[in-house]
Amino acid sequence: MRTFYLLAVLALMAPTPDPQYRAVFEGYPVRRVLVSPDGGLPEALNDKQSAEYASRVVVDREGNYFWESREMKPMAMVVSGAFTVFVAESGYVKTYRSQSVKSATAAGMKAATGVDQYDYVEHVALPGTGGAANYFGNRTTW
Asked: 0.85 cut: is pTM over it?
């Protein structure tokens, strides 16, 4: 009986998720390419870096999208061809609409980028540098 009370107290103390927001996209990058007017610098990311640069887009109860991983910047969702793109003033997150669409367009993606193992790209402008960071990775929430 004592264990039951302890578990009940712990359950009441546990944080509850904020019902105001719901994740609509979450992804973890495996590759980053820093781009500047002088060229690009590609690098593979380790697990710690992948967690640090994770991308997350949420939607509120009114249907407004926010880039949670980028200071809750407002975003708009655009569906175009094989992709869904979440666009903000300072960048975007672009992902396949579905796994079946990804499979159907994988050959084209590989021809355009040289790779086909990524589910999304996140493009983040780097203010004051004229450059950007592009993250390529795999989504976990969609």
From this structure: no
